Amino acid sequence: MSRPVLVQPSAVAARAEYCRCTTVQNYDYDEAAAKLRCKARFLQDRISSLPHQRLGESVSFCDCELAIIRALFSTMPSCIKPALDVQEQPTSTNVLRSITPAGARRNKTGS
Fold this sequence. Notes:
Layout: H1 9-18, H2 29-36, H3 40-45, E1 53-55, E2 58-60, H4 63-72, H5 81-84, H6 92-97
Antiparallel strand pairs: 1-2
């Protein structure tokens, strides 16, 4: 006889916040490691701090979770950070609003 599955509403809500997969493709450790270009052991050692799905003892990752993992371990050299803090450029609509007409046009009909 099977036991009832207890669904944690907080887990469902948390997954809905980040998962945008239209078609869910789940990957096991080896497939996820191949997509991330790391070793499966890296994922296994850090599984408690990584987003993932667990069904019993099976662990799987969707594309959204792999994107989060990739972002978690992205680094930015300190020499590049100042270049990213550039002042915001004016938008094209603001530029167009500041343009005024040059003056009245001449009528080509000669009148």
